[in-house]
Amino acid sequence: MRDPDAKRARDRARYAADPEAVKARVRAWRAANPEAVRAIGRRARLAHPEIERAKRRAYLLAHPERRRAKNKAHKRKVMVSRRQWLADYKLAAGCADCPPGTVWPSAVLEMDHGTEDKLGNMSQMLRASWEVLVAEAAKCVVLCANHHRMRTVERKDHLKRRRNTTGNTP
Ligand SMILES: [Zn+2]
């Protein structure tokens, strides 16, 4: 007995006879069945992902402030995961100058560029591309804050001594 075409024709006739009554009934049904309404939307989105994508694109084009908020939220997420990556990287390496087995929290561990030419410090590099970030990390030696300071002081003293022995002193 179920004939979708016949039902559609009946619905159309009912709508033609009294559109406002049909609209009111639909509104009431939708208000009473929010879960079913959501399911219909989900089914439609699953059935037509390309329409869904186009709609979302059009929406973001029409709402620059939403687009900016979305980009900002995305960037924030990337930064959180990169900071976590750097913390894990430092923890895995540990301080190169401390006795083996010494464990420091990642906040105490620092990235020492040594004499490698440096594009920028690691907190700036977190904003660079992933490839640049990884390449920059590879230039560094992980050191605890004390050993980082000591190596830096030694390098400065070494430079000073070199300057003093190359003739420009009295
Ligand atoms: Zn150390």
Description:
The chain has 170 residues and is mainly alpha-helical. The chain is built from eight helices and two strands; from the N terminus they run H-H-H-H-H-E-H-H-E-H. It folds into two domains: 4-65, no CATH class; 78-165, no CATH class. The protein has a two-stranded antiparallel sheet with strand order 1-2. The radius of gyration is 32 Å and the shape is rod-shaped. The mean pLDDT is 91.
Report the bound ligands by name, code or SMILES.
Answer: zinc ion
Extract low-pLDDT stretches.
none
End-to-end C-alpha gap? 111 Å
Percentage of residues in DSSP E strands: under 5%
| Biggest sheet character | 2 strands, antiparallel
Give the integer mean of the pLDDT values.
91
How many separate structural domains?
Answer: 2
Number of helices: 8
Q: Give the fraction of residues assigned to helices.
A: over 70%
Order of helices and strands: HHHHHEHHEH
What's the overall geometry?
A: rod-shaped
- The secondary structure category is mainly alpha
What strand order characterises the main sheet? Answer: 1-2
